[in-house]
Structures are given as structure tokens and as C-alpha cells.
Amino acid sequence: MSKYSNTKARIEKKFSKNAKELLLALFPSLHGNDFTVESDSFESHRGRVWHEQHVVWFGPDYYGESDYMDCEWLLYSWLIDNTTDWDGIGKAHDATGWDPDIAVDESPFYSPWRGASRAEIISHCRDLVRAGVTLERMR
């Protein structure tokens, strides 16, 4: 076995651990939730790579089932949701009377973080934590 065979999986776990720590710093209300390490995989040029990722469990929903989400995905979706101009999209549609036959270009209102790399997201969230940004609740 090569000494570099598990490098990618260790990097994935490190990203995931950093995302968990940033998520807890940005959302202090998540301290009561359960965090676990789950296994996942992705296809790379060397084949399927299995890695571990940190996930946060949210309490039972209406049907009594608990859901979990990947910590990295929560940071990414929060960043996009909070930097998208939802009011601008609504006003653009209001200007056309919400007519489905008229195409509205929503792209100027989209978040600039769409398509950002994980490293950029982690770096930006670190800057937010350093600046003292916290949010009250998620979900």
C-alpha cells in the first residue's frame, strides 16, 4: 500500500472538521444538536474515495424522523441564501406582473458565492468568525 493512498480522504475529513468548528462558531444555537462523523464517497480519477465527514443532526420533524446535513453544505447554503438579493428577484417579477410568458433575468440578483470553492468558503467563514459575526438560529 502506498503511503499516499489515503491522503485525499484525510484532506476531506480535515475540511469537514474545520466546517464543523466554523458552523458552531457562527451558529451558537447548534451547540445542543448532535454532531456525528458519517462515511461518504466520491468518484475521483483514481476511483471511488471513501472519507468521513462531520454532520449535524436536527431534531425530529413532523413525522418523527431526524434529519442530518453535512456541515460544509450548511455553510455553503447559508452563505448563498444570505447573499442572494431575494427582494430584487421579487421586484423584477413584480415589474412583469409575474407573467410566466415574460422571461425575467434573475442572474444579476444571484449570490456572488455561487460556484465558490470550499477553500474560499472556509476562508470567508473564518473571516466572519474573526469579525464576531454570529447568527441566532438555523432551520
Q: Could you walk me through the main structural features you see in this protein, from its secondary elements to its overall organization?
A:
The protein is an alpha+beta fold. About 40% of the residues lie in helices and about 20% in strands. The chain is built from 4 helices and 3 strands. The protein has helices at about 5-25, 70-85, 85-95, 120-130; strands spanning about 35-45, 45-60, 65-70. Strands 1-2-3 form a 3-stranded antiparallel sheet. Helix 1 runs parallel beside helix 4 and helix 2 crosses helix 4 (about 120-130).
**What string, H for helix and E for strand, traces the elements in order?**
HEEEHHH
Runs in which pLDDT lies below 50 for 5 or more consecutive residues are none
Kindly provide the radius of gyration, computed on alpha-carbon positions and rounded to a whole number of angstroms.
19 Å
Secondary structure tally, helices: 4
In short:
The chain has 139 residues and is α+β, with helices and mostly antiparallel strands.
Record the SSE blueprint.
Elements: H1 7-26, E1 34-44, E2 47-60, E3 66-70, H2 71-83, H3 86-95, H4 118-130
Provide the descriptors you would attach to this structure in a database record.
globular; 40% helix; 139 residues; alpha+beta
